[in-house]
Amino acid sequence: MDRAIIIGDVHGCYFELRALLEEIQIRPSDRIVFVGDLITKGPADREVFDFVRATRRCESVLGNHEYDLLRFWRRQDITLSRPQRQTVAALGGLFDGYMEWIAGLPKLIDLGDQLVVHAGLRPGIALERQSVEDLTSIRRCGDSNAPWFDQYEGKTAVFGHWVFNAPHMTKNAIGIDTGCVYGGSLTAVILPQRRLVSIPAVKSYSRKEERSAGQHENVRQASLSRPSLHS
Ligand SMILES: [Mn+2]
pLDDT, tens digit, for every residue of 157-177? Predict the structure, then answer.
């Protein structure tokens, strides 16, 4: 049976990515889909970008960090965070080429029975009307300010962005960012079986304080609730 392997936020953790693919025993017929945030905060941004670009069956949706770099490249009004500036430096003279590739990434991939997005979907809004900001950054919404995935009832969405201690699996949403770059693990979910595979991080590559300024409020709010929140 053809499988889709959905991989959580890599954030430059190339070693763990290769170990994860090894553990899964990738087959030629597998479709490999990343939830975005391939880069920033980790040790090997270029290697991860190069691997995903060069491997024909790999795809990725746009993450908030790719989106921020894209806006910076397009000279839109954005101030990069320190980890993002380090990524720009790591990409060096090849930055333009990487950004041309990033500019072509989809914001959402529809696998048929499941969707793949970076952050999530705004409940009650049609797929084609979801904003790029919501798709790459949504966390909480509505009058209750509850997590989007506790309110969403559409086609099963596989997402990253929200760091969980363990994969968060419900009928309509599967969260697979288990915080590899913070010393957690890199997780994949294999569809349609919903089998989870995780590889522990070799070490913590980034402290959780290193976030862009605009996210601090979310983080304070999240520290009161059970699942920990990081970008
Ligand atoms: Mn993110």
Answer: 999 999 999 999 999 999 999
